[in-house]
Here is the input.
Amino acid sequence: MKKRIEQFIEAFDQRTGLHTGLQKFLYEEIPASSGWHQIFGSVALFLILIQFFTGIMLAFNYAPTPGEAYNSLRYILTEVTAGRLMRGLHHWGASMIIVIVVLHMVQVFLWGAYKKPREATWIVGVVLLLVTLAYGLTGYLLPWDNRAYWGTVVSTQIGATVPVMGPYVSRLLASTGDIGVVTFARFYGLHVLLLPPATLLLVGLHVFLVRRHGVAPAPGDELKPKKSFFPEQVFKDTVAVFVAFAILFTMAIMVRVPLERLADPTDTSYIPRPEWYFLFLFQMLKVFEGPLEVVGTVILPTLAILALIATPFIDRSRIMRVRQRTLAIGIVTLAALGWGGLTAQAVRTTPPQTAASSIDFSGPTQWMQLKPAELSGVHYYNQENCAACHNVVPGGEAKAGPNLLNTNKRHDQTWMLAHFQAPQSTSPGSMMAPVNLSAPQLADLAAAMLALTPDNGDIITTTPAFAADGAALYQKNFCGGCHMVNGVGGKIGPVLNGLSSRRTEAWTAEHFQNPQKMSPGTPMKVYPFTQPEMESIVSYLFTLPDKVPGQ
Amino acid sequence: MTETENHGQTRRTFHLAVIYILGALIGIALAIPTLIYLLLPPRSRKESGWVDAGDISQLTAGTPVEMSFQQSRVDGWRAVTEKKTAWVVKTPDSKVIAYGPQCTHLGCAYHWDEGVKQFACPCHNSFFSLDGKVLAGPAPRPLDRYAVKVQENRLMVGALKQSAESNG
Here is the structure.
């Protein structure tokens, strides 16, 4: 049997040469000093393949046009089984590639592996770094949520400041004026049609060059016997790849990647921020203002790239031990400190996203459709700790009181109110204590209970506290007397659905404090909310759906 | 075999084992979610329940009428509303049946032939009786029926259910 297999392999090899080719590739001789410090290239290649694979998987359920892109991604996240995992792998894989590619580069730099005759390998590597960043930039737009949209507005505007070429860059990316369908098509085309084959060619060339020149030796290697790439180095590479994969997989499961609200070009209060690895650039732009801006946006990055490309031509010294390369170590340390400092500063100085703009739309959002009274009732449900005795999920652990999901099938508002005030009058033998709230508050609580159906029990558990609190304030101050929300309320004041696309949160807060200043002649009175109250009610109003449900 | 050679051989075996095991683990960790992702049906959203197809107070027993209505359907990430039709019949005992508009043979649209009092499919001459049974032709099973209920003379139509294979 064994002989048969060997015969087959030999016959196959005579016709294709694959076996000898693989043997030659695997049993390549590498210097005695090779080891754990050279694992990063393999890990980067592995992650690129993971990105290709998960990218294709996502494309199977993704519609590459604005709007539809958002809906289909939301479908992947909320309805396709394992969809969240696929997206998580692709999202965190992108970040991980940046980390690994930079570590790979730092290793090659510290060991001086770029030196003659390996200059071309290094330059192809620099180009691959730029390609990796281009993936990040173009992929950022594809979810078409607010974060994607506004992040891309900033990055394309930076591109537009390039002297002379700026307008052409804008036209190439179709980002002159507004970001729109054409911009999206360009970014998508770059991300999935241009960059992947370019990556394959460049990686192929990179690996070919590495093999052509052999793994860079350290001083003294010529005196020691060479090692074989397989299985010793492959073993180290595999262990590293496995550790990287385990971290990536864990992150994809544990760290939820949110989907923000659909891209809204009219949202003036959104604070755009780039992906973490671009934050240092973002921060540097704050240093260079006015006419100097071009220094931060174009001149410095271009110089940095040119310096990287020129590295092997500037440093023409003989190969040295890593520990003797103090200058290289110094440069890497300085770069790391500079990058870390700028990033930390960017994180520290960027104001936090408002509660309303950081809602995860890939999670349950049914609570947004509730009427103010119902949402206010959720506030009192939590305040009175009703969950101690009642369930609002099908099944659920045994509790003292009944499951509330079908309340509206059994009871009406009159019954509910009587029940809250004197539970035993409607349910003899009940252990429930009277609910100590005012009549309007009880009415809200009853409204929430009557809104429960077996399908929407999660409105109780998934409503953000600010929204329930804001709705309670809205009810307490009789805002519904003049304003309409989700189809209920008065018609004296403007409808509050869609407020987020008409005004900013700051404007709204100021309007509460000084209506006459913001809208002269308005009949609205002053509402002197406390700071936390103001945040709740404004955030609540800014999460209202633009379109009134059911209309 | 010397001590060092023996040691080298053990190391090599260990290296190979780790390479294959870790490689297989990564492969499995990717393959299982991928199969689930591609093959499991998506969690279904609520389909629109009952649709009002129209007034049936004028319907006379034994004379089918073609009625059309708007029904919504979930198509991936979209909710689409489509025009659907049904052949609606009132039976002598005042029950209402709504048949799907396609012949069970190859999906042609059939019509009511008033002369022979039968549903006739023009494609391959399948004929169905008023209660949906196959009378002649290649149709393999009776006409499909919508779930129906009547509320104050309005016909409410639900999902279209495929009829059983047999002609009973």
